[in-house]
TrEMBL record:
It comes from the Eukaryota. It comes from Danionella cerebrum. Keywords: Membrane, Transmembrane, Transmembrane helix. It is a multi-pass membrane protein. InterPro entries: CD20-like, Sarcospan. It is found in: Membrane. The chain crosses the membrane at residues 48-70, 76-94, 106-129, 182-204. Coiled coil: none annotated. Residues 1-23 are annotated as: Disordered. One of its GO terms (cellular component) is sarcolemma. It holds the Pfam family CD20. This is Sarcospan.
Amino acid sequence: MGSGTSPKGSGVVGSEQKGKVETEGPVMEEVQTCCGCRFPLLVALLQLLLGIAVAVVAFLMLGISSSLLARETPHWAGIIMCVVSLLGFVLFCITRVPDERALVQFVIKLLYFFLCTTGLVISLVVIAFQCYHYTLTNSLSCKEVGDDCVCTRDPSDPIARLFSYSAVPDCSAITSTLLMYYLLQILLNLAQAIVCLIGAFLIWKHRYQVFFAGLQSASPSTQQWQKV
């Protein structure tokens, strides 16, 4: 009949379309979600909140006495964690395509992985310092000397080491308030270490445990590829 089409022509067109579909790879990468949020939004948000909390508590500790050392007031750990979270937000905002097609995305992922690992190590170091200073401060006997608070571990020992906290007229700020801040820093940095560990693990899992198998899981028009 006049309305019929050539089977040969249809076969050529079909083979061309099939070849075109097979040569095209996945355009967009499957979006990872965690608790309904796209990765790494939730992790970066927690890192930002914990980093701000650590920095605020550290500055409150520094307000008690200017004699406190940097390892006793780990505001630097909170600032570093805020920087890590900002990189996580950048990773969240960029277009997600396969790593083989986006060098910038791969570099940001790698940098975010190393920063999460660094944040984990820093948090553990801060926890160790805070535990040490909590134990040390808890064993001190303090008394007011002018506008300062002078503490020692053994008041009966004349050659015992003295710990002087300047501009602290009330020693209860050292024996009670500062101890509470030490405990708070331990808890915050512990949570911070857990979040960094989760972020580093998810980046590692997504990069090395998931790859494109080259199998289509839907119709050729959708261009969806199956991950194994």
